[in-house]
Amino acid sequence: MSEQLHNPKLDEHPGSNTEKDPDNWVSGDDPITGAQASYLATLSEEAGEEMPVADLSKAEASKRIDALKGKLGLE
User: What is the pTM of this model?
Assistant: First the structure.
């Protein structure tokens, strides 16, 4: 009987490779995703801030999302 492959997503405390600095993302310069744009719009509204410019990169959007989550106490 074969041993099943370990699934790190089921670990109680996933390894440090689950979070990377957006500046180190291979795809960080790609355009913002639809999901990021939607989440950023929601967070911006909740924080009473204007939506950022439309040409954000994925990395820039992630940093902005993290900042807004911190401001709103969602971390």
Answer: 0.68
